[in-house]
Design a protein that fits this description.
8-stranded antiparallel β-sheet, 7-stranded antiparallel β-sheet, mainly beta, single chain, 3% helix, globular, 19 strands, Jelly Rolls
Amino acid sequence: MSFKRGIVEPMIWPSASAKLLDLYTGFAGEFVGAWWYLKGDGTMQVGSAVTLAPQGSPSAAKITYNSKKIQAQQLNGTNQAFVSPDTITPAGDFSVAAIVQMTTSATNPILVARDSHEAASRAVNFGVTSTMATRAEFYKLGGNSVSQSAGSVFVNGTTYLMVMTYQAVGDGTSVCTEYVAGAQVKQDATMVFPLQAAALTGWWVGAREFSGFQSWLQGYIGAAFMTEKVLSPATIAAMAAVTP
């Protein structure tokens, strides 16, 4: 309350502001090679090797992550995403990650590197690719699927850090490891190598295309990145605990 000339006036409190969740500054040494980092305000981190441009006008929003409000980009599940120009799939080790909140139990592509058909046996497809109500086949790499029961992993309206790491060992022996909220949930050591070596149609955040069929993320992206190294479990856990 405040007082003015004997009149009691109510105190007007500002609404909670949303800040950018910064997973770069404290972990700059983890970003190597042709890395890129898409921020929650829809802009790229300085130094990113590629630029992911908005498609279909995603809208600014705020979501809750680790009990804090953070800036995010809202995607409508219809025609909105972030897309880079043609690029090359990493030739060796890499990690991809996204701060994501899904708002529907459906196909939700998170982060995809694809060739002209995306179904190529050595393309990268990272996201929830089947109905969450039954199972979450949420990571695909080089034609190999790594599935996890949906109920214990994803809840609509909850924000998660999702990470996939890829360790290039050999064809059929490379290792894909998946993390949700800083904890490992699955690992597969039968992945292909090398991945698609030809020029792709780019990195997509929030969309994928499969032989002409397109699907789109309905929800929010608070950050997304790719780095050409295998992030350690300790680094991933530390990233998951970051607040703005």
